[in-house]
Amino acid sequence: MQKQYALKGNIIYTKSFGKFETVKDGYIIVEDTRVKGVYQKLPEIFNNIQLIDHGNSLIIPGFVDLHLHAPQFANLGLGLDKELMQWLETYTFPEESKYSNIDYARKVYSTFIRELWKVGTTRACVFATLHKNATKLLIDLFDQSGLSAYVGKVNMDVNSPEYLIETLEDSILDTREILEEYSSKYELVKPIITPRFVPSCSIDLLKGLGSLAKEFNVPVQSHLCENYGEINFVRKLHPDYKDYASIYDNSGLFGEVPTVMAHCVLVDEEEIELMARKKVFVAHSPNSNCNLSSGIAPIRRLITRGIPVGLATDVSAGHSLSMNSVLVNASQVSNIKWLESGRVDKPLSTAELFYLATKGGGQFFGKVGSFEENYEFDALVIDDSSLSIFKTLTIEERLQKFIYTGDDRNIKERYVAGKKIEEPKCC
Amino acid sequence: MQKQYALKGNIIYTKSFGKFETVKDGYIIVEDTRVKGVYQKLPEIFNNIQLIDHGNSLIIPGFVDLHLHAPQFANLGLGLDKELMQWLETYTFPEESKYSNIDYARKVYSTFIRELWKVGTTRACVFATLHKNATKLLIDLFDQSGLSAYVGKVNMDVNSPEYLIETLEDSILDTREILEEYSSKYELVKPIITPRFVPSCSIDLLKGLGSLAKEFNVPVQSHLCENYGEINFVRKLHPDYKDYASIYDNSGLFGEVPTVMAHCVLVDEEEIELMARKKVFVAHSPNSNCNLSSGIAPIRRLITRGIPVGLATDVSAGHSLSMNSVLVNASQVSNIKWLESGRVDKPLSTAELFYLATKGGGQFFGKVGSFEENYEFDALVIDDSSLSIFKTLTIEERLQKFIYTGDDRNIKERYVAGKKIEEPKCC
User: Fold this and answer.
1) For residue B291, what is the nearest residue in chain A, using CA coordinates?
2) What is the ipTM score, two decimals?
3) Domains assigned to chain A
4) Is the CB of B336 less than 8 angstroms away from the CB of A293?
């Protein structure tokens, strides 16, 4: 007999792209780690299980952040009037080099995880640094917190500052060591293959990582077509490849295993075709793309072509850990994209964006991001009583108000895979 | 002998556009309502005045919000997947009609002012509704709070729903009554002439308001060239005028007295020329312009042409009362505008934007928004100890971190015109 319990509240989630499901004063039955069902009235067979009544609160799926850099957390909000390549050299690389120091890593990573908990992110695809030990620590800390994550040791063996580079051999060996140790160690925290991006990886390294991905059957994350300067650099480095995506593809890093690529602001038609065919995920990071003058990704177009999309903070090129901020910004830039595209690429609605921030990105983790039967139960309980005080709102409007005007103070409880997660200990 | 006191802390402000002035562990001397001077060492003559030591905190000028709608506060975060004209009809006009009820007005307006206090806005240019009594109440509540504001009774006598319209005669009479009663009543809260926008005002009304502005020598606020749909409507209504701005101009509402126009997203060359000549302020409201799919205002170009610019939340088309949010968004859209303009309109730096959010908008109020000698002392004391914990940052970087990652929890004290402002009582 598995552990069952019921949560009561105003339930809102999305099954399909752009359509809210709501149950006012409804019940979610959780069995072990997963959703058993959502009901308007509690079925009699559940009369004797534990009932947690959240009164007038909202119950929504936990947020999925499909791309962010844990070691850049200390730089949050800094240097955001630079472009990508300049920003990497001035702010990011010097900061990442500090993670050879495990004490520094422990201090920042534990704070980072606590802040992630605060803002209601229950699943995340995380870049660490190239440092093996700090990466292992980050995996362990995530497991201790109860949050779910893919965590990648970053690989970079060329075109990187001498204080933040590794040899091809070390890069492969260290990655293999982490995969061997962690692939099956934890239920909710897993390693992921993480070439930084094409400019900082030799073709041999990319191919080696492609082989490891296949051997260990682990997913891949990287960056693709973020910024003009970056793309020009890739073209100069690899004139023999037809485009950026094909470099990953030729190394077995583009959809052979589940793959997520951050940004995709400037993907061309052939790259879109390839991503659609190989079901490569896009981690849409609008705050980052605006902050670093990268542009606006053609998200409506990518979705229409059948490419799976999730939302991402891309901390610290994105300045906020909060998915609320990303949801708002993603809506705003989709409006500007609509104008830019001559009113062709329709703006993204709140329901569409909420889907991307939960089930859209959640699909990278399996059955995650919805309250449909058999989905892992990740949830936030939202007390919006301080936000909606002047009139009676629908559940959809209350969610919209929370997204646009709420913050961590409104998040009362967090659940991951059926378990209530307490505030992680820090430092 | 006037009252003097000193504040000690890490002082940062802007004298000129784009250049921070900083004094680490410095002193600001306040005499009565104004700044006497900023010093690295306390001059001996001030040895005996009261000293308030804020330790390691930042001391910055208070924020100036150059355009927002108090009665739309209850709608904050709602309906933001609509365009302007549709949004007005569905959300805004029905909400504003409620302000015939003075009890409702008291409830929302007092909460609104408390929230404005929270986020560190010390001066604001505020639209009320067309209702005379609720507008008077808003002026009184602002005065009681200690915050400074221009508050305008909205005028609208045509093309408005029957539940939210007034006759030409009432509009003029009610406005005159408010001007007579309030023009000299309070030191820091003043009435302002507020035609809603061209579509909702007859030419007779605009001309009547122009005469009142001149007669009472009070400033003017309105909307200009926000959105394509709106501009097309104005063209259809007034084919005999060469453009939107000239309709205000021909009515004596465009720079005869100090004038601020919200948005100016789509101003043409002749309008820019006129604004520059008549020193008409722009209230740049990027959150609003993104939320309602209006576009990105050409702020770099307007500034280069010598037009005075401030920043604004435009609540509730803008979803946040916080000027932090506007500063971030204004930076982001300036980056996108740089790309859109073929890399001609340079992005706005943090120092430039901070100037706009303080001294830029402050100039509409007189000597406001800086710590230069004889400026009214409006200030925020920022405790950023929760934000900057991993390394030593410069004062500029600490300000940047507060703007991008801080919120009302970091604001420890607020001052307006030399006086510390306590949390306003609410409801």
Assistant:
1) A332
2) 0.97
3) 4-62+370-420 (2.30.40.10), 63-365 (3.20.20.140)
4) yes
